[in-house]
Amino acid sequence: MSTDNALEQALKLAANEPAHRPAFFNLLLDSTVYVLGDAGSGWIAGAARTEGEEPVNLQHWEKPDGSSAIPFFTSMDALQQAQGHQSQNSAPQPFLALPARTLFAMTAGAELFLNPKLPYGKEFGPDEITALMNHGGDALTERTILEGGMRITLSEPQEKPAQMINSLTRLFADVKQVRRAFLVQVRDQPQEEPHWLIGLECEQDEEAAIQATGQVATDTAPDDQPVDICLVGEEEPGISHYFIHHITPFYVRKWGSWLRTLNDGASA
């Protein structure tokens, strides 16, 4: 058994803890993956195809529900292991090594499955692949700025979503620009069901923090409830004032570890 590569390690972490999923998606988009198939004599992996060139023939595997997906793999070792599980008697199949972005672009509209038949895997539907390609995996493809004359009702939840809070807290340990994070329920209209609103107090690169937070929050929200995100600041009015002065943050960046890092660096 070979040592897992970085993408396989990231896949294992992401499978067990949603906080690691943004890092996995980012790494996947920059990785080379392996897919069963034949590129033909007129096509070079990674190059743009023109009309008249031979098509790429990619192998499909049947899923337990009877539908099919294109298998792709994190490494050659993973591909060979999965082939052994798929059929013990068949000869090795030809394969291609492709940038993940190239594979996603050339299979638009298809179902894909990363590392099928292996302990850790991930199925990708067409919509998820489109979001990855267009928004870098950002689950918040639409954003609404909560300000101005809009009347909304905010309340601190009686029961907080433990999985969401735990995963976001783990995420913010790596997303250093988040200073504090707050969570409330928001209702735009009296007759509507409330949904979640996360307030982030950030330093620099707020967009990256929002994107990573959206990925984890939408993945862990109870019953797939909607999640909104807004930025808050100490001196800002309106919603920011409500968060800062009336809500206890569920996450506060610990300065102690940062100071220890500075001291360690100074003494090196």
Provide tags for this entry.
GMP Synthetase, Chain A, domain 3; 5-stranded mixed β-sheet; disordered C terminus; single chain; 2 domains; Trna Endonuclease, Chain: A, domain 1; alpha+beta; 268 residues; elongated; 12 strands; 7-stranded mixed β-sheet
Describe this structure in words.
The chain is of the alpha+beta class and 268 residues long. The protein folds into 2 domains: 6-135, Trna Endonuclease, Chain: A, domain 1 (3-Layer(aba) Sandwich); 153-259, GMP Synthetase, Chain A, domain 3 (2-Layer Sandwich). 35% of the residues lie in helices and 21% in strands. The protein is built from 9 helices and 12 strands. Residues 42-54, 140-145 and 256-268 have low confidence and may be disordered.
List the SSEs and their pairings.
Elements: H1 6-16, H2 21-29, E1 32-38, E2 57-58, E3 61-62, E4 68-73, H3 76-86, E5 95-99, H4 100-106, E6 112-114, E7 122-124, H5 126-135, E8 153-155, H6 162-172, E9 178-187, E10 195-202, H7 206-220, E11 227-231, H8 239-246, E12 251-252, H9 255-267
Parallel strand pairs: 4-6, 10-11
Antiparallel strand pairs: 1-2, 1-4, 1-5, 3-4, 6-7, 8-9, 9-10, 9-12
Helix pairs in contact: 1-2, 6-7
